[in-house]
């Protein structure tokens, strides 16, 4: 796997902002040139519903696996705290770690659940030629809600089969800490559901927007990974694109020149029309009182619609190797 973007050392947080601002002046963020038409054929709706059902199952499974892994880690932390407490002190840092594991685990569980449910919905929707973002998002929300309901109902069901224990740090004790729902659990579950919806929205919207469709031909375009571009080459390509100088673009894109901008060609196999997208990746690193900090940014820096005669020379370029 290629590592995208160049890591630049800066003095502090302000330096990282200045670095990204400077990059954005050279290659500003642009809106995607492709917009899903919103068409929702009957087959698309059917496919979305099937995708939603499958998404609910896979989302629930994802949520349960991530929750199990998180709970395993959390139990280890709890055990560690218990051991340290038995020795007479509980280091604050250990509690903070335990809380961190809980927050990250909850985020992964609910975020993963929503994203998988939504991605599955939109991905299956493609089989029915769905181009409607709203329909995909609405059905993805329903799938997410079902998956969340399953994940939320498992802890109390498990707890009902396990005898209670007075020792909170025993396995039985932990099962009841997680499974005997009180107001705190309800708050966590509601926050988790909202986060799952956010991830479902992002997942469904991104997936439908990435499914470039040629409306005149009624077919999805094929995707080609073009050789990666350095910043300087990407600037040249952006300038040449503005005047549709495809010969210049093909010249500089013939080989990998760096890993700053990731170009993708979408092209209709029937009429030859397409889109060229380029995503810019950037990282800034600095050291503060808490240690090394790395800030990552990425944005769409190139996005343009191409007529068949402009897409053709790009389609003959070599594929990116990694
Ligand atoms: Zn076409």
Unique ligands:
zinc ion
**What radius of gyration results from the CA coordinates?**
24 Å
- Please state roughly what percent of the residues sit in beta strands, choosing from under 5%, 5-15%, 15-25%, 25-35%, 35-45% or over 45%: 15-25%
Report the major sheet: 5 strands, mixed
Number of helices: 9
Element string (H = helix, E = strand)? EHHHHHHEEEHHEEEH
What is the end-to-end distance? 6 Å
Number of strands: 7
Tell me briefly what this model is.
By secondary structure, the chain is α+β, with helices and mostly antiparallel strands.
Polypeptide structure, described:
This protein has nine helices and seven strands, in the order E-H-H-H-H-H-H-E-E-E-H-H-E-E-E-H. The protein is an alpha+beta fold and 322 residues long. The chain folds into two domains: 6-34 and 215-315, no CATH class; 42-211, no CATH class. The protein is flat, with a radius of gyration of 24 Å. It starts with 5 loop residues before the first strand and ends in a 7-residue tail after the last helix. Bound molecules: zinc ion (ZN). Zinc ion binds at residues 214, 216-217, 268, 270-271, 273. The site of zinc ion has 7 residues, from loops.
